[in-house]
Amino acid sequence: MSRPPARGGDQGRPQNRGSNRGSAQRRHATSHKPSNRPQGEDRYPEVGVQARLVAGILLNAALEKRTGLDEEMAKSPARDLSPADRAFARACAMGALRRLGEIDQILGKRLKALPGLPTMTILRIAVAQMLVLETPSFAAVSTAVKLAERDNKTRPYKNLINAVLRGIDRDGFGVTKPEANLPEWLAARWLANYGDEALKGLAEATRFEPPTDISVKPSADRAALAQALEANILEGGTLRTDRRGDVAQWPHFEDGDWWVQDAAAAIPARLLDVQPGQTALDLCAAPGGKTLQLAASGASVVAVDRSESRLKRLRQNFERTRLHAEVVAIPAEDWEDDRQFDAVLLDAPCSATGTYRRNPEALRAARPADIAKLADVQHRLLDVAAQKVKVGGKLVYCVCSLEREEGETQMIAFLRRNTGFKTVAAEPASVGAPLEALTKEGWLRILPGQWEEKGSLDGFFIALLERTA
Ligand SMILES: C[S@@+](CC[C@H](N)C(=O)[O-])C[C@H]1O[C@@H](n2cnc3c(N)ncnc32)[C@H](O)[C@@H]1O
């Protein structure tokens, strides 16, 4: 299932260390030497320096706000790079984001005082190349020094940059622990909520770029697609591949039989188990991964979302897959429609702390105050969703958050104020969830770090309810 990693940037660049080795050993502490293949520095042209400059811009944009990296990718100077250098710059910034805590520890051991952000950025990007992309050290060091020379703010520090990076090359990274990659306040919450062992798995999951997961229409030939996409078939039916890059170029994309969707994100719609001819409502639908699943099962689907721009992507996804849904662009609370449905899915807006494997910036963007605000929104949306379920119908509530306020606490409060609903205990094996995800209440609490040997999955809270009155 392994395929050679895409080469980004200049020669010999990113050796993508993937994440999804079949037998992932828990490599809890890192202590190894940077790689240093003997090649001449002169072979690395100036454009390599520009790609590293862009990597620093992307990193700082992501640290500033959640959508920062993608916004910068669409602008100059990132936009002006060759496709290979853009891919390199992105891989470098993502690697730095994933392992920022470890990188800062490695640097902290060699710096008496932390330099200003421009110098620190050059150092972080250089260490990310050595630690994550396995760039030859001499190339990471020489391009860092060249970058420093370009700017008045960093030029005085070029000898320091050179000495620090050469020291790391000589002595190795030292021991670092993945817990360093978690913001302290989140690590403290997760330790309190899930315990020490789970925290280790959550931290380890920061280190690796996840595999690509794919959902397949029930009518398609799953085994043939798995072969074409060099994928394994996970329990539940998700295809998992080490492929990366532009999925539009992958086999059978235009046929519309598959779409990219994390293995955990595919579980909520599976739990609803809608049947052909049933009616289903997806109340926070865009960009539509779960709506596609409902429609592909043969249900008659209504997709509601407040964001017209996100619904544009949903419509494109439906067009490509040749599926159908009635689409309504409106805040769910304002939707005046008295239909009730056999199945209602509420994938509510949330802090998204469970998605850091794919979006490492989610860890930096989350704020405690946002969790409280989002919990209020979820509370309101849950009450709207409840009204839309027929008696005897089902409701799935899910969030890609690891925070109890958005999951378990929300569900306890909902069941207290909506006595006409009861939990239907999930059966993890039948929907492709790890067995350890099942809570005593019958809900699923999926943590990145579960299924580590299969390449892990995103964090989710998922509850299946039935309306009894
Ligand atoms: C977690 S995302 C949904 C992802 C989607 N279910 C999927 O699988 O592709 C949450 C969505 O809720 C939408 N949203 C936020 N507040 C909303 C509201 N009050 N009413 C309807 N949609 C809302 C957002 O626009 C966003 O698209």
From TrEMBL:
Gene Ontology terms describing biological process: methylation
Binding of S-adenosyl-L-methionine, residues: 284-290, 305, 347
Origin: domain of life: Bacteria
One matching Pfam family: NusB
Residues forming the catalytic site: 400
CDD domains, alphabetized: AdoMet_MTases
Any GO molecular function: methyltransferase activity
Record's compositionally biased regions (Basic residues): 24-35
InterPro entries registered for this protein in UniProt: MeTrfase_RsmB-F_NOP2_cat, MeTrfase_RsmB-F_NOP2_dom, NusB-like_sf, NusB_RsmB_TIM44, RCMT, RsmB/NOL1/NOP2-like_CS, SAM-dependent_MTases_sf
Alphabetical keyword list: Methyltransferase, RNA-binding, S-adenosyl-L-methionine, Transferase
Matching PROSITE patterns: NOL1_NOP2_SUN (PS01153), SAM_MT_RSMB_NOP (PS51686)
SAM-dependent MTase RsmB/NOP-type domain mapped to chain residues: 174-468
Bias-annotated ranges (Polar residues): 13-23
Chain positions covered by the region annotation Disordered: 1-44
Similarity comment text for this entry: Belongs to the class I-like SAM-binding methyltransferase superfamily. RsmB/NOP family.
Name of the protein: RsmB/NOP family class I SAM-dependent RNA methyltransferase
Organism of this sequence: Brevundimonas terrae
